[in-house]
Amino acid sequence: MSPAHPERNSVVEALDPPGPGPSPVGAPTVVAAGVAARAGGRLLFEGLDATVTAGQFVAVLGPNGAGKSTFLRMLLGLHPPAAGSLTVLGERPGRRNHDIGYLPQRRSFDSSVRIRGVDLVRLGVDGHRWGTPLPLVRRLFDRARFEQEQRHLDDVVARVGATAYGQRAIGEVSGGEQQRLLIAQALVRQPRLLLLDEPLDSLDLPNQQGVAALLQQISADGVTVVIVAHDVNPILGYLDQVIYIVGGRALAGPPETVITTENLSRLYGAPIEVIRTSSGQLVVVGQPDAASFHAH
Questions:
Q1: Phi and psi at residue 215, in whole multiples of 5°?
Q2: Across the chain, where does the E strand assignment appear?
Q3: Are strands 28-39 and 42-53 parallel, antiparallel or unpaired?
């Protein structure tokens, strides 16, 4: 990493060595009490109260610029709270980054990128080391460790459903397939907390739902999953909690408690209707237009 990006360096350094695996289901992972965030002298939000436990799948929602990505940076210890208290895995943010998998805002790979998907995932294990990874050299000098790492790599690629195309060049696979491989890269170090910034961006509806189902499976294994998302509807049926950050205010809790006509209309300052379908699923309609309101 370039010295011009010290924050990125600090995250990479903290992700060494691999974590011990998921926490017991129900153990507190993120606890926020009266948390506020400022950036550039501007208040982004205040009054965030939330408790996220191990094995939950949580979405952070709200307009562009509201502070969703800033909240993820706060969990990594890269942006201090302006007020309130925040703990991550029982300690102050930044102390347990070796137990966190982090996927920043979605990167796209041009068709000319020839690195294989499995090699991209492998960078989650040894990408922090100097030089170019040379699997053949490592196999010659420490065959047992290499074979153990390879089995783990294969298991993680299979876990995200990418075995069929993992050997292909990353630039040749679809956007949804690329995203699964990037999630595998974040999972390969066995994190207790998985943070993903807009992992569904630019994906079509079937791929959004496919990735959401994958993340729900990961959370069912005890890994806490927190994602930033624009549209709640494609993923609403998979979520355990939502955190809405809108207009300087924050509201967190189970979807059926937070996502109501009254709550969302008050947060957005515009008429928003929440309906329940005949199958019992919640649907948010009448959201403010993203182009004019900068909403999700």
A1: -65, -35
A2: 28-39, 42-53, 57-61, 83-88, 100-103, 193-197, 224-228, 241-246, 248-253, 273-276, 282-285
A3: antiparallel
Q: What was the pLDDT predicted at 125?
A: 79
Contacts of 188 (CB under 8 A, 6+ apart): 18, 121, 122, 124, 125, 152, 153, 156
CB 142 within 8 A of CB 192: no
280-288 mean pLDDT: 80
- Token output for 177: 């397939």
Cα–Cα dist 69/84, whole Å = 18
Longest pairwise C-alpha distance within the chain: 65
The helix-helix angle for 143-159 and 117-126 (nearest 10°) equals: 120
Helix residue spans in the chain (DSSP H): 6-14, 68-75, 117-126, 135-141, 143-159, 175-187, 205-220, 255-258, 261-268, 290-293
- Please compute the mean of the pLDDT values over residues 223-239 and round it to a whole number: 93
44/63 Cα distance (integer angstroms): 11
C-beta of residue 278 within 8 angstroms of C-beta of residue 285: no
How far is it, in rounded angstroms, from Cα 88 to Cα 159?
26
As given in the structure block, the two tokens for residue 256 are 């059926």
Residue 31 has pLDDT above 50, yes or no: yes
Length of the chain equals 296
Q: Indicate the SS3 state at residue 237.
A: helix
The H-or-E segment that residue 68 falls in is helix 68-75
Specify whether the backbone of 158 is left (phi greater than 0), alpha (psi in -120 to 50) or beta: alpha
The confidence band for 27, taking pLDDT boundaries of 50, 70 and 90, is confident
**Cα–Cα dist 228/232, whole Å:** 10
Residue linked to tokens 């390969």: 188
Full-model pTM: 0.83
Do 141 and 161 touch, CB atoms closer than 8 A? no
Between CA 126 and CA 152 the distance in angstroms is 13
Structural tokens at position 223:
């890994």
